[in-house]
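[job 4471] stage=fold_predict status=RUNNING
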Amino acid sequence: MDAVPALDEPLKKVLGPATAKVMAEHLGLHTVGDLLHHYPRRYEERGQLTHLADLPMDEHVTVVAQVADARLHTFASAKAPRGKGQRLEVTITDGSGRLQLVFFGAGVHKPHKELLPGTRAMFAGKVSVFNRRMQLAHPAYELLRGDAEETVETWAGALIPIYPATAKLESWKIGKALQTVLPSAQEAVDPLPDSLRAGRGLVALPEALLKIHRPHTKADIEDARARLKWDEAFVLQVALARRRHADAQLPAVARRPGPDGLLAAFDDRLPFTLTEGQQKVSAEIFTDLATEHPMHRLLQGEVGSGKTMVALRAMLAVVDAGGQAAMLAPTEVLAQQHHRSVTEMMGELAEGGMLGGAETGTKVTLLTGSMATAARRQALLDLATAEAGIVIGTHALIEDKVKFHDLGLVVVDEQHRFGVEQRDALRGKGKQPPHLLVMTATPIPRTVAMTVFGDLETSVLDQLPAGRSPIASHVVPAADKPHFLARAWERVREEVANGHQAYVVCPRIGDEEDDPKKSGGKKPPEDEAEKRPPLAVLDIAEQLARGPLKGLRVEVLHGRMQPDDKDAVMRRFTAGDVDVLVATTVIEVGVNVPNATAMVIMDADRFGVSQLHQLRGRVGRGSAPGLCLLVTEMPEASAARQRLGAVAGTLDGFELSRIDLEQRREGDVLGQAQSGTRSSLRMLAVIDDEEIIAEAREEAARIVAADPDLTGLPALRTALDALLDEEREQYLEKG
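[job 4471] inference complete, writing structure tokens
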């Protein structure tokens, strides 16, 4: 929740231009209301010290500690050749560990006078290492002196709020600024309806703001947090409930398939029966398609659970009913793959209007950015004349030139790779809003689905189709046990000898444009010490072809290859003319080669949990069992190894997504671009606060159903307007 009009006073007026400028640029805080909603990250008790033993490297930290000793050294340097250079070394302790502070030059005088042994203070700075010892160079500090009237006990027991801070603005300066604006908290307009607040025993908003910034007891903090979490959950869920309500008012063409049409003909061709899950989800989708307002449905399913089949049947139902369907894929490789598998599944039904095509058939067109002009022109013509009932493509589908005869359904594959503008641009191509089906293979815990995709109804496919094989996963500790890695390559040779194929995945491409700093996933902190760049496709492919996989047909695939070359490699691999494909994560989504049974992921610790799970889903897609080997050089005790152990230990994507989310910051979970925009969730933790989110969703739905425009709740309207400024509006829609 954000500022409300009573708190719209710019910080410049209240705190002065210099402080206000830093707050705006570094923390995104512009008004008194923004600052009041900048909550403490944690609290220190003056009598209790932080753990110096657990300080993270290269991070800006705030610690409360006591000076153990201080020594002033003189030395000669270029600036002070006569031995007049001065360095002050101060050691601080908190009982759990010791930390060195260093001050140089003219900066030594003030701390030399103030930081005497026994002095307690808050220190803030960036943790670095010098001579193998952790230190803070030139930290900012604030002495902790009890005021004369304070007794020792109350001083030692007071709770010091520690705020999310920056190098330019320490936590205690933010604290002082907050003390200045705190009286304005009384003006805060309460967005929660009185009945809801009273029914749940929540404190009023002004009281919650006072208690969060100036708590007297730990119970104060709990009261404030409980209340502020409800604000965030409720205002967000009201926004989503209103979007669902507005969508339900839009007109759409009901699409009901005929009894003897394209869908029936397709179902008759299927060589297998659909799983129970596929039948149930298809029924939900067909019910939605038959209504006269647009379907908005999220289809999540494990890798290989048969989502494409469900989506294809939905597209055929719409074509059957006289409309067109478009499937939007995030990459050309995936668009081509989908086009191939859809035309294969449909057979002569995909050759409508062509010689030998079925009478009930339709044309399935591919549209990507790299197509030759003539093919592209033909594809555009097929869409405009309704010759093509189904089109599969990349962002090229969104361009202005693309005109549909009657767009009835949009299927978006891997939603998290598309922005709101793209989704809307495609939806805008229908005469009336088309139905929308969003697919993701990234399992999303229920609360995240309710928060991020709250404007969509959710369907889950959790059974694997018959004939799918289990995947065995193992961690290969290459540094501790090099013979395990040698054995991994032997296993790959054995799979190939048995007529199968294998993937080897690397985090980086390895050509000269490739920047190691940008590669791979975000590095976990423990990798920072390890300066080796991530392993690269081009290097590994060459080493394997000359060494352990000599004699096998090894090829590479990565995102900077020409589209035609990529497609040619994928075709050769699919046809079985390539034994081992060394690739980047370009194969992560949707690539389907049932004969590929083994995958070796190099530098597996450089990938996220969900990404590893996605990659692993590329093997075991046929009747032969799959094998996934996670190669890492990280030591056994590291968090990275524990993460890999979790991936190897379960094939349950929902369980892994929980682990993944618990290890990542909330802002990342919500797909919030880390570009300085703040996540609208500051207090709410999507995984831990499942109950609050579920209850807030119910309350929001009830209130919006009774009063969609919130005319009886002006304070809630105000809070919504603040939440839904432009960036939040986008964030909500992007999901």
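[job 4471] summary: The CA atoms of residues 588 and 614 lie 6 Å apart.
[job 4471] exit 0
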